[in-house]
Every structure is written in structure tokens, then in C-alpha cells.
Amino acid sequence: MVVAAAANQPFTLSLWPPKSWRQDFPDPPHPNPLGKRRFRRQRLGLRAALVEAARPKEAADGSSMQQHQVQIYRRGGGDRTEDLQAEARAMLRAANASLYSPELLAARYGSRPIKVVGRALQILIALSWFGVKVLVDQRKGVLDRNKRKRAAELRSVFTRLGPTFVKLGQGLSTRPDLCPAEYLEELSQLQDALPTFPDADAFSCIERELGLSLDSIFSSISPSPIAAASLGQVYKARLRSGDVVVAVKVQRPGIEEAIGLDFYLIRGLGFLINKYVDIVTSDVVALIDEFARRVYQELNYVQEGKNARRFKKLYADREDVLVPDIFWDYTSSKVLTMEWVDGVKLNEQAAIEKQGLKVLDLVNTGIQCSLRQLLEYGYFHADPHPGNLLATPEGKLAFLDFGMMSETPEEARFAIIGHVVHMVNRDYEAMARDYYALDFLSTDVDVTPIVPALRNFFDDALNSTVSELNFKTLVDGLGAVLYQYPFNVPAYYALILRSLTVLEGLALYADPNFKVLAASYPYFAKRLLTDPNPYLRDALIELLFKDGKFRWNRLESLLVQGRKDRDFSAKDALQPVLKLLLAPDGEELRILVIKEAVRITEAFVLGTVIDTYNSIPDLLRALMFNGNASGVISMSKTEQQNMIELRDQVYRIWGLLRSSENFDPSLFQPILQVLQQPEGRILGGRVIGGITQRLAARLLQQVLRAPATVSASS
């Protein structure tokens, strides 16, 4: 599907429909007189059109979305007040939008037993037949073998049962604590494959909700929907005001009634599961309530518009991310009018490549944006299936459909990064404890039995480096652990896992060797190196130091990966560590740094001596050192090689810093300032003293021709 999103762009109209079109629409009753205007418009002969727009051009004033400068308001900052007033009017139109309330549902449907029983029987028959098949599989001992088949059947059942169960299935596809891997995969394929509703009903809804006739709003509108979902369908139109191409989403008639009844019944089933099904450890009723609230939020299109605006403000500061704008004057709780986006679905690889674009570039954009959503601002798109991600002709990744959004708690954002550090370090005890901070486990749950399960999975999975690990393998393995123990996976975590899994799945079609963790690693490295948050500073120290020794290879790896992130800067990379080192509570780190400074100084001094010795001609070297085969320094070849490698590694790291964008030698000024203070002079004296002792020990060893090595604890 190709759609268009440019304001004030030229496009071609083909006149439509024929006169006979009006005969296809019977005259339904209209409680609102405005509904009759639609039929007056028919008699006048609406010129509806399917619009094919040219590529958006740069604005006349040359403005474009630059980093941290997002154009939120279509007409510029001068009309911000007008835009806010239009938004306020839209909110008034949505004042009576439904909210999820179990009490109200119980009051409404408790007095309608016939309707409730009829729908309950329909659901019960469909699900019971599925349950019988699963029970037979269990009795025959083929439950595991038939999991994939039964999962596909459940997907089909949910589709037949309608919008609520389509949404429920999509929600379950993100819950590894509730469903085995086979069910997660099948339900993640669940699409909104539902029939469209009559166009006459949709057009009447637009007029009724906005209080205007259709032909006074649009100069053209598509005669039939160009997309349909479980909750509504979308038309393509052209506004009379501003001559702008827009997408108009109209809510499915009677959807509130259908969803309300279904959630009333499902919630009752949740109570039974909580009471009688021991294998499910999560609070099913609480999960249903949370999910129902999200679905009801989707029914309020004004809220979706506000979500889109917030998402645009946070993430469309990147030139490769596009978020469509909202037209508040033509938006209500059941009608949403937004910019039309010209693009191709992200899972249509051939069409994307035909435009000269690369799927992997777009996937990488999606991964970076998803990581920012999860770990930077915590506000993220909760329904990231391929239909909601478009590739524009300019190579931008456009996000659509902001009905379901979620937020990551601030504490959890940092805990996730710490969890990655613990995974890299294979510190499974710390990984298990992370689940408290991530709110996966209640603090009264003993994590001791979980540690062996984590070790068994990750020791096998991490045979290669983390960046080479397939993300789906990681999610499936972790999901198996979660499924076996009393985990309660928060919705935000399950949804972001699904987002990254979807992106990796799209990328694998273009490159079977693609690894989403490899694409994510630069972001994690940049955050660890640059974020001043105390939790992340501790995580960085934990990653770089082990058993009292500094792991220069880890720092080099972080710098190499961090430099791949467009926001990385050497100055930002050093500041958090410098501040921690010079802080009053940094004594423990200072001890480690002093020890490492001594080791590095020794590597530079003795490495230079070794290089000088090796550069002397053999004949002259024999004369100068009396033919001493052990060389100028009493040190084994292995120790000499390790020392030179350490020195060279420090040189490489310094080169990485110097070649980084925005590198400024003045970033070392805080060190010089501190060294001038009494505490700094003490620190400098300790470093010089340690170096002196180390070199004196080496000199004494050389004079006495002691055995080859000096202990690292000297």
C-alpha cells in the first residue's frame, strides 16, 4: 500500500463516483439532522478521489526537522495558540469518551442475562473445542509435539471471535510469562483481518462527530477504506482548508458495546483462572484490567492524537524518523484526522528496494528509536507491528497508530542497562537480583533457584559474544525461564521485547545474519560511557574493573562501539568517570585507578626501554650488554609482550578519543584543577609514590638478576 503525507503538495484527481453510486447506500435513520447532509451531498454529486501525491518537498522557508528542533505545529510557532485552542476543542468533543470501569460493566451487563449468555455460549463453544483438543493431546502424550498446530488454531479462533479477541491475542503474544514460545510466535502473526463496515456509516459518523457536512470538510475522499483494523477503518481525503492530504480514521460502529461485553465475560473467566488454575502464577484479573484500559484508550481518538504529538516531540528530532501531525479541528473521540504518510510497509522488502532504499537501514533506525523509547524517555509505541511502520521515499521511518502507548519507569530504564552489563559479565546472581528492580519478582521471592536456570541458558547462548547473539534466541530462552518461575513480566518490558523481535524478524528477510543486539550495542556503549546517572556509573565501573584490575579491552570495545552512535562525544564519555573519580565518595575507585596508573606508567617506561633495546644492532647490543641473552630487562618474553600490548592498547584508546567528534583537550582541565588542590596533590603523590616503588623494584630486580616477574600487588 502506498500512501501520501505532504501538506500543500500538487496531486492529481480522478473524478469519481458515477451517479449510480448513491443507490448503493440505503437511508439509515439519523438521530442527528447533520446526518441528512451526507445524502444532500450525494445528490450534489460528491467528487471523491483516490489521491496519488508527489514526494513531499522542503518547506518554503527551508525549515526541516533538525536534532532537538521538532516542528510540532504545522503553521509554525506563531500559530501555537491557535493549535492549542483547536486541541482544546477536540478534547471537549471527546469529553464523553468511554473509560474502562469493571464496576460500570458489571452494572450494565448484569441486568442483561440473555445478551450475556448468548455471547458467552459463542465464546465458550469456540474456546472449549480448542481446549478439548489440547486436553486430548495431553492424554495422548503429544502435547509438546502439537504445540505449533494448536497455537495456529488458537490464532484462528481469536480472529473469528472478533475485535476484542484479536486485541487479546496480540496482547498475549507479548507475554512470555503466560504463553509458551510456540504460542507467542503464532499470536504475534495475528492481524486485524476483519471485514470493513459500510461507508455510509463511516461518513455519517464523521458528520455527527464533527458537526459539519462531509463536503464542507473535504474536497475529496476515497469512496472506500484504504485500510481496516479491529477498531476502525481509514479513508484518504483532502481537506478544503489548507488543501492538505490527510488520513481519516473512523471508529467501527458498536465497538464499545462489543468490547465492553467481551471484557465483562473475560474478566469473569479471569477470576476462575486465578482460583482454580495453579499453573498460571500471574494475577490474571489484574492483567485483563490493565489490557482493557489500554484498549479503551484506543477508543478515544483524541487521546491517540495527544499520544502522537508527544511521540513526535520526543523522537522526531531525528531526520530519519517521521511522525504525522494531527488536525485537531477534524478530530473527536471517534474520528481522527492526521497527515497522510507516503510510504511502504516495512515488511514489503521488494517495494522498499524498488525505491532505492535498504531495509536494514530502516530497521537500524527503528532499533535506535526503540532503544530511545525504552531507555531514554521511557515513552514508547506499544503496537509496533509492520503495518504501523512505513518506509517513506526519502528513506525515513514513519510511525503510525498511536492508540496503544506505554511507559517504562525510570528505575527500570537503568536496571535494564545494568542487566545487560551483568549478562556480559555472566554475573547470574546479579542478573537474578535485577528482577527485583525490574519489578519481575516480588521482593519476598527467593532468586536462588533461578540462578542455575539463568546459568544453564546463558552459558550456552553466550558461547559467542553478546553482539553476535540472535535476539529471538535470547528472548525465547529467557521466556522459557520466565515461564517456569513465578515471574510477572511488566507490560512495558514485554512490549519492547516484541518491538525488537519484530524489527529483527524484518531484518532477517534482508540479511539472515542480522543481529539486533549488534545493532543495539553502540547505544548501550554510548549510554554507559556518557550517562552521569549514578546507577550507570556503577555499572560502567563494574564492567571495566574485575578483581582489582582494569580491563582495557572492555574500554576499547565500548569506545569502538560507542563511536558508531551518532550522539557519541569523547568529552561526554570521560566526564562521568572523572566526576566519580574526583568525588568525595570515590576513594575505592581512586585506589583502583592509582594502581592502574602505576601499571600503565610502567608499561610505557619499560616498553620504551624494550623498544630501544630491540632497535640496537645485534653487534652493538652484544658489546653493550656483554652478550646477555636475557636483554636489558630481566623479564620473560611473555611478560614483555603483555606489557607492550598494554601500552599499545592505551595508545589505541587515546587515538579513539582524539578522533572522536567534538574532542577537546580542555576536558582534562578538571583533573588539573583538582591536582592543584590539597586532595589532588595527595592523589598525585600517591600515584608518583606507587610508580617510584614499582620502578625501583624493577631496577633492584635487574641489578640482582632476580627471577623474571614482579607481582602485580607490589
Features:
Transferase(Phosphotransferase), domain 1, 4-stranded mixed beta sheet, 5-stranded antiparallel beta sheet, kinase, 15 strands, ATP binding, ABC1_dom, alpha+beta, Kinase-like_dom_sf
Can you offer a commentary on this structure?
By secondary structure, the chain is an alpha+beta fold. The chain has 4 domains: 98-192 and 257-294, no CATH class; 199-256 and 301-405, Transferase(Phosphotransferase), domain 1 (Orthogonal Bundle); 407-548, no CATH class; 576-703, no CATH class. 56% of the residues lie in helices and 7% in strands. The strands form 5 sheets. Strands 3, 4, 5, 6 and 8 form a 5-stranded antiparallel beta sheet that branches. Strands 7-12-11-9 form a 4-stranded mixed beta sheet. The chain has a two-stranded antiparallel ribbon with strand order 1-2. A hairpin with a 5-residue loop joins β5 (232-239) and β6. α5 (147-161) packs antiparallel against α6. 36% of the residues are buried. The model is unreliable at 1-69 and 706-714 (pLDDT under 50).
